[in-house]
Amino acid sequence: xxxxxxxxxxxxxxxxxxxGEVIRAPGRDIGADMLVDxxxxxxxxxxxxxxxxxxxxxxxxxxxxATIGTDHIDQQFLSDxxxxxxxxxxxxxxxxxxxxxxxLLLIAERRQLTLAGLTMGVVGIGNIGKRLLPxxxxxxxxxxxxxxxxxxxxxxxxxxxxxxxxxxxxxxxFHVPLQRDGEHPTFHLIGPSQLELLKPNAIxxxxxxxxxxxxxxxxxxxxxxxxxxxxxxxxENEPNPNQDLLRAVDIATPHIAGYSQExxxxxxxxxxxHWANLHGHAPADVQxxxxxxxxxxxxxxxxxxxxxxxxxxxxxxxxRNDDERMRQAVNxxxxxxxxxxxxxxxxxxxxTHIQFLELAEPVARDTIAQLGFQVRT
Length: 377
Ligand SMILES: NC(=O)C1=CN([C@@H]2O[C@H](COP(=O)(O)OP(=O)(O)OC[C@H]3O[C@@H](n4cnc5c(N)ncnc54)[C@H](O)[C@@H]3O)[C@@H](O)[C@H]2O)C=CC1
Ligand SMILES: O=C(O)C(=O)[C@H](O)COP(=O)(O)O
What we know:
By secondary structure, the chain is an alpha/beta fold. It is 36% helix and 15% strand. The strands form 3 sheets. The chain has a 6-stranded parallel sheet, with helices on both faces. A 5-stranded parallel sheet has the order 2-1-3-4-5. A 3-stranded parallel sheet has the order 12-13-14, with helices on one face. Substrate binds at residues 45, 67, 259. Pathway: Cofactor biosynthesis; pyridoxine 5'-phosphate biosynthesis; pyridoxine 5'-phosphate from D-erythrose 4-phosphate: step 2/5.
């Protein structure tokens, strides 16, 4: 069996090589000729899997993407051809939550904001959005949620209309899939008229797909609303985002919100498990793939004030490093893909235990656990 895999997908040899030959290629270079005699194709978000790519595939029986998003995959075509497919739902959801927390606490510090009592709107309450809710509540934020597809399917789900959420929220974060058509499209969900609804000093975070926010309209809006704070992990026209926008935003990162070691291990293992299940093999032991974290534990003595929470979160994941790396590299050739390929090892908050001294308030334990750390009693 021949397994063609994106070179940036870790753990493929560990899991798939007992069953065949693993061939590696840069995701953007995977072309039709490479698919001849390939049985299994393993991709990330940069490879468009469609009729054009698969026109010479003569043996392909399985395609897996080690991502949550599926907008790069023509699933109808795969189904029509009888090619099994899976993505990796939820694989890096905790990593994206860590990213949002790190950004929020950083911007709050820069703007000297107390987060408790502010209102945060979460657009898209799927694997990421729903894990984010308790974390935001731990920071004392009032949360509004918007998810019309869930509201349509679940009678008890209360979805705040998008326009109302944009008007009322001090902070808005987006966690929707990119959908260009259908009943609930998200392409340019946020354009000029939606931007006008935002509070002038709002904070907006996009860590889902660049095309969900009209980048040109955002740049224009920022020119006349200098108090707006903007965090972008994803961009229109990746890997060549608009450089004026990149310089204008408060935090700029190269589509790495989900790039924790755990997220990558789960990405590959979820895909492997799907394939293994089809062929009667045992599932992967994902914990065995992960090395022990460098920062195994921290000790907390006092109350979990915002400044302390910021220190705890930044000790594990400090988004300033990713922002700095992007700004320093922006004039170099192919910087976007290189930053992603050479991304440093990053662990999730969940990999670190927090211990408490006797005098720590009992409520501290709940807050810290809700934020996503492991709590040691
Ligand atoms: N920046 C990064 O590194 C990463 C980005 N992502 C992106 O984040 C997206 C969301 O991830 P998950 O929460 O795991 O996906 P999910 O599929 O579990 O949840 C998405 C939610 O969005 C809702 N939704 C769909 N259309 C909507 C609309 N028009 N308005 C409001 N809500 C809508 C769905 O009903 C669903 O509840 C992924 O599709 C992917 O594109 C995911 C992981 C990492
Ligand atoms: O999971 C997703 O969806 C993502 O956006 C990925 O984390 C992005 O990573 P790559 O697949 O582009 O390496």
